[in-house]
Specification:
Elements: E1 7-17, E2 20-26, E3 31-35, H1 42-54, E4 73-82, E5 85-94, E6 98-103, E7 106-107, E8 120-123, H2 129-132, H3 135-146, H4 151-177, H5 182-222, E9 228-233, H6 241-247, H7 249-255, E10 266-271, E11 274-275, H8 276-279, H9 282-304, E12 309-312, H10 321-332, E13 339-343, H11 346-353, E14 360-366, E15 369-372
Length: 373
């Protein structure tokens, strides 16, 4: 897509979300800088924006744990400009009524209908877990990108997870009741056989395009010729899913869960031929994760025609001065759309951004209170 449409969050209202009691702010279409001490609410503000896009918190998917202490609900409202249209989004949760998401005051029948409407990419210090933790986080990372522009992928993934849950439940039932019914299991095997190739082929096509974009960003941020790589690993690279399920049946019955399939896919991160988590410095790991997310932003832009909103939480931590400068140069050009940046030191952040000669607004944060300077 040659044309990239305008998309930004013009205004936000937050009530009782985490430590934020009552905030109403008009926002800059380019760079918004939130400055304040740790624990004052900067990250929670970014998370509220994320909630508007994904109908869930980036950090805690249990909604009632995101309500401010001693309150019984939270509400996040946003007004988005997308190309020439203004859209309002209202996301709320209470113990009594549960979760409600409305677009232009019309309630979504399914939360998945909202997914991908307002693309957002978030980078936080916790993203280092993509490198250090298990494969589920890395699969979720893949899924969060593809599902924002590919409706068939999203629906296939939802149905696959439902079918996998049913198959695992049945395997446990077999063990608990000491019986086996091949016909019952084949019902869910058939669904996995139907859905697995769709998901696998779309993941493979994604990585064929994504890897070069990622590599380009890593080199731009690091300013080095470090050889970084991402390898996509899947059971379906070795065999078809029908054969995989057949060969793993004995093991599945023993451990009472489905041991092989696309729900075991993983990404292998390397630098100069070695595992990233074992050999890379903190700065290299931060550069790697930032490059993953910048490439995600670029990929979504190319496939939706809109620049995602970019949420950068403590982005400069662990980066040396050269890498900080390179990140600033990237985010300050027209390649990205609306950006939110958090920092603890107003003067330091101004010092970082001013050489790039880009307009930015400062929002001062103090104990859940927000003031545009």
């Amino acid at each position: 897509m040659a044309y990239f449409g305008t998309m930004n969050l013009q205004r936000i209202k937050i009530n009782n979300f985490k430590n934020i009691s009552d905030v109403k702010l008009d926002l800059s279409a380019k760079i918004n800088c939130l400055v304040g001490d740790n624990g004052t609410g900067k990250t929670n503000f970014l998370d509220a924006i994320y909630y508007l896009a994904f109908t869930r918190s980036y950090f805690n998917h249990i909604d009632n744990q995101n309500i401010k202490h001693n309150e019984n609900f939270f509400l996040v409202e946003g007004k988005f400009l997308k190309k020439d249209d203004i859209s309002s989004v209202k996301s709320s949760f209470s113990a009594e009524k549960g979760k409600t998401v409305k677009l232009n005051d019309k309630k979504h029948k399914k939360l998945s209908d909202h997914f991908g409407m307002f693309p957002v990419v978030m980078i936080t210090p916790f993203d280092i877990d993509l490198i250090l933790d298990g494969s589920e986080l890395r699969r979720n990372f893949i899924d969060s990108i593809i599902a924002q522009y590919d409706r068939e992928y999203l629906i296939s993934l939802i149905n696959y997870k439902k079918s996998l849950l049913q198959r695992n439940t049945l395997l446990k039932k077999f063990a608990e009741n000491s019986f086996f019914d091949k016909g019952m299991l084949e019902i869910w095997d058939y669904k996995l056989v139907e859905l697995s190739p769709i998901i696998y082929n779309k993941r493979k096509a994604f990585f064929d395009e994504y890897i070069d974009i990622f590599d380009e960003y890593y080199k731009k941020i690091s300013g080095t010729n470090e050889n970084v790589n991402i390898e996509y690993k899947s059971d379906l690279q070795e065999s078809d899913i029908e054969t995989i399920l057949k060969n793993s049946l004995k093991k599945d019955l023993a451990i009472q869960r489905t041991s092989a399939g696309i729900h075991k896919d993983d990404l292998i991160f390397t630098i100069n031929g070695y595992q990233l988590k074992k050999t890379a410095s903190q700065g290299q790991q931060k550069t790697f994760v930032t490059s993953l997310k910048f490439a995600q932003t670029n990929f979504i832009k190319e496939h939706t025609g809109f620049r995602p909103i970019l949420l950068l939480d403590d982005i400069f931590d662990k980066l040396d001065n050269n890498r900080v400068e390179n990140v600033v140069n990237l985010v300050s050009d027209n390649h990205f759309g609306q950006i939110f940046i958090t920092h603890t030191d107003k003067e330091k952040l101004e010092e970082i951004l001013k050489p790039a000669k880009v307009d930015f607004s400062i929002i001062e944060v103090d104990s859940g209170n927000f003031k545009t300077l």
